[in-house]
Amino acid sequence: xxxxxxxxxxxxxIIATPQSHSSNVDIKALNEKIQKESxxxxxxxxxxxxxxxxxxxxTESLLIGLLSNxxxxxxxxxxxxxxxxxxxxxxxxxAAFSRVQFTPDLLPADVIGTMIYNQKQEAFSxxxxxxxxxxxxxxxxxxxPAKVQSALLEAMQxxxxxxxxxxxxxxxxxxxxxxxxxxxxxxxxxxxxxxxDRFMLKVVLDYPKKEEEKIIIRNSINGFPTPNKVxxxxxxxxxxxxxxxxxxxxxxxxxxxxxxxxxxxxxxxxLTEYKNLISxxxxxxxxxxLALAAKAYAFIKRRGYVIPEDVRAICHDVLRHRIGxxxxxxxxxxxxxEIINGILNNVEIP
Length: 350
What we know:
Blueprint (H helix, E strand, L loop, with lengths): L9 H7 L10 H11 L1 H13 L4 H12 L4 E4 L6 H11 L4 E5 L6 H5 E6 L4 E6 L6 E5 L6 H13 L1 E4 L2 E4 L5 E6 L12 H4 L4 E4 L5 H13 L10 H13 L4 H15 L13 E3 L3 H17 L7 H12 L4 E2 L1 H5 L4 H11 L4
Parallel strand pairs: 1-8, 1-9, 2-5, 5-8
Antiparallel strand pairs: 3-4, 6-7, 10-11
Helix pairs in contact: 3-4, 3-5, 4-12, 10-12, 11-12, 12-13, 13-15
């Protein structure tokens, strides 16, 4: 358990002695730039919190996905404001929003669009589907068959759609928020691991606190406040470029690599007991997403550099859907959450 204690002096030491690959970084100037460029984060959060009561972790995760160009899979029982959160985010960003309710009879064309024959012109024309929006809510993604899921996930990866012989670029920014209900599994088509891996974060939602629920009741009866527009889609794209500038020391990179390596080879990190519990660990995509999400988290906290605490804060959301549990782990009711906790407690913090 010693590994859970963070030395707050360490980040300063890291910043003061940058590695050779970034010796020309002026941390002070970068910090000032990030603080200036991230001013909209507080405004955006404030507007979101007018409508979304509690669920701060979900709001933060949406911002991380938005700033690091990553898609999010939300898991929670119905009624936890998953749909409301994405519509509110779209309003605050003045962006195009669409919602697709995934059902067993849904077809790929219902998501991406199709060719329609025009009798007057005697020619086919393209009818674009709801995927052509800045924010796409794929509600209960595990309700639709594999063909539909594949069509959506291809769009997420390639950021483009082919209808007939034409290829169309999807609008920027483009964020897919998919939801799934963890309780009811009848008539569902669970996403294969390779497809789940396309999601940058998998966020698990919990019930609101009692005090928060009282405010939710009041708001739903009296009407939710209308959020104001605080940022434009163009500003989001600019902010993404700034997020990439957030300084990450080589020691933090090594920390990320060690954490992901511990999901593959736990025995190399004094976690021999996990060897038979993990069937497969995180791929390099896990390392990339952990680094990007840590930078976005530092940006949200209005800091120009990444500290170990940033990595630890987003580690569960990045890794929970990337660790394959063995039959032995399932038999013992061991979850990926417990394995991630064990890894974070054992991997040395820089």
